[in-house]
């Protein structure tokens, strides 16, 4: 006795079996579709169809030297339950919809014009809900390098990477030298907003620029004075040495005879220089 004999199926199991039966029926009907390229007396001749299977795909021999992929008929059915009487007993036939999946599309509203859009350059790369037609690539929507942003808005690396949320960027090849590292390009409007988060107001940012400029000037003056002082010392040292070598003349004292060596020595009265010599 099989496991299915005498078993009472649930509605869900009946619906699944009916779906499988309908799919099998449609598959069979698709295989029996008349070949559309060969006709005889105004009607299709299925006996002349030549179906060839290549690597799991079925093709139809057109007879003209090339193969055509076998067409498959797709039929859309609705999810209805049709009551059909047969032999005095009622049978439920369940027709199900096809297996297509509806993917919802999320629309964004442009902050500039208010129009709805699905995707844009600024939204994909920087998360800004601005459509492409409102993008101003030469204005506030322009891109700025990390180095320029740090110099102009007095930002540190932590302001880009650690402060929440981290600023998004795109990487581009360095136009000055391809061997250098890639540039990080940030959105100008996001950099300006981050600068306001750090400094509070534009007036404070301007004041910080002035303070740093003053510090640079003071440092520059100190460096210049140090270089000038070192230069004066070098010049005075060279003049002193030259004057000493050019003006000093030895003033020797009396000669002293060295009997063991049979020579004479005398010493300068000014610099204590001692000279040894022999007399003829």
TrEMBL record:
Residues 141-191 form the XPA C-terminal domain. The keyword Chaperone does not apply. The keyword Ribosomal protein does not apply. One of its GO terms (cellular component) is nucleotide-excision repair factor 1 complex. One of its GO terms (biological process) is nucleotide-excision repair, DNA damage recognition. SUPFAM superfamilies: Glucocorticoid receptor-like (DNA-binding domain) (SSF57716), Putative DNA-binding domain (SSF46955). Keywords: DNA damage, DNA repair, DNA-binding, Metal-binding, Nucleus, Zinc, Zinc-finger. Pfam families: XPA_C, XPA_N. GO terms for molecular function: damaged DNA binding; zinc ion binding. It is found in: Nucleus. Belongs to the XPA family. This is DNA repair protein complementing XP-A cells homolog. It comes from Bactrocera dorsalis (Oriental fruit fly).
């Amino acid at each position: 006795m099989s496991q299915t004999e005498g078993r009472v199926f649930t509605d869900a199991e009946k619906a699944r079996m009916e779906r499988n039966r309908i799919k099998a029926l449609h598959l069979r009907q698709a295989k029996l579709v008349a070949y559309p390229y060969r006709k005889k007396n105004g009607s299709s001749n299925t006996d002349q169809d030549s179906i060839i299977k290549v690597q799991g795909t079925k093709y139809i021999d057109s007879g003209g030297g090339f193969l055509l992929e076998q067409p498959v008929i797709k039929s859309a059915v609705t999810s209805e339950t049709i009551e059909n009487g047969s032999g005095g007993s009622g049978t439920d036939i369940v027709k199900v919809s096809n297996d297509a999946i509806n993917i919802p599309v999320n629309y964004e509203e442009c902050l500039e014009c208010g129009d709805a859009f699905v995707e844009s350059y600024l939204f994909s790369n920087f998360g800004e809900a601005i459509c492409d037609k409102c993008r101003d690539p030469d204005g506030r929507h322009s891109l700025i390098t990390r180095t320029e942003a740090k110099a102009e808005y007095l930002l540190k690396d932590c302001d880009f990477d650690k402060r929440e949320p981290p600023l998004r960027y795109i990487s581009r090849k360095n136009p000055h030298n391809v061997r250098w590292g890639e540039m990080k390009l940030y959105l100008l409007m996001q950099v300006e907003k981050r600068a306001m988060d750090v400094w509070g107001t534009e007036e404070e940012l301007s004041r910080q620029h002035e303070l740093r400029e003053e510090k640079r000037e003071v440092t520059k003056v100190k460096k210049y004075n140090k270089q000038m002082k070192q230069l004066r010392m070098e010049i005075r040292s060279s003049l002193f040495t030259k004057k000493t070598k050019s003006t000093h003349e030895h003033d020797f004292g009396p000669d002293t005879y060295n009997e063991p060596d049979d020579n004479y020595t005398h010493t300068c009265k000014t610099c204590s220089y001692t000279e040894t010599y022999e007399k003829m």
